[in-house]
Amino acid sequence: MKKSLLFLIIIVLLFYIRHILRNKSREKYIAIGNEQIIGKREEQEDSFSTIVSEKGIMAVLADGIGGYSKGKIASSIVVNTFVHEFLKSPDLAHMEIFFKSTAKTANKEILEKIKGVKSGSTVAVVIIYENYLYWASVGDSAIALFRKGEFINLNKKHIFESLLQEQYLSGKISKEAILKNPMKKRLTDYIGHDEFKEIEINKYPIELKQGDKIILCSDGVYNSISEFEMEKVLEKNVEPFKASEEIIDIINKKNYPKQDNATIIVLKNED
């Protein structure tokens, strides 16, 4: 009886060690960098955070909307909610549930804490888990993958222009009508309002390759610098913190009179 029990314990331990070694072999070194400027705005309404844990890596960026400092509060609520839920989550086996429930929690908290003034926030969030990239977003903050010299936009922008593009493709309006529409950059969805629909989630996780770079940025970045300019920086063999600094430095030197808050996070798969 004792020998059978001992044999069973040994088998269980071997399976556990195998599981640990398998997970360890999947772990990759992810370098992280970020940079932020206030631009010509009175307040910084962008919020962001990066978390490295045994479960995985999360980067989250939020761009607040609303006057009287409410945008700043809203974006902080979104980021803090994602950080809190990520840290307390026992595992990341159900990524879609995590993204959806966390977005709804943040939406509810904004509605409860900010009253009387229209406010809200975009969100762009990525999680790297066992060398796979998962992402979710709502609003117009961007998520992109830079791989082998190619800049690949991953998420859609939830703005009126996207709806106009659909109308153009179906032949209902002209290209000129899109360009002249003064409401084209208006958000069609964001976190922090009663009609909040649902956060967009990638259907299939992306297996990361050596040298891949993941970029999260607010509209203050991509409205001020072209993809070509970003590619020239990202293709360099520099650390993410240096790439982030260079991109923001390019924006600063342009000195646009209406420069928005600009925030960028760059993650690089070093292995």
TrEMBL record:
InterPro entries referenced in this protein's UniProt entry, alphabetically: PP2C, PPM-type_phosphatase-like_dom
Pfam families on file: PP2C_2
Name the record gives this protein: Serine/threonine-protein phosphatase
Organism domain of life: Bacteria
UniProt GO molecular function: protein serine/threonine phosphatase activity
Organism: Clostridium thailandense
Ranges for domain PPM-type phosphatase: 31-269
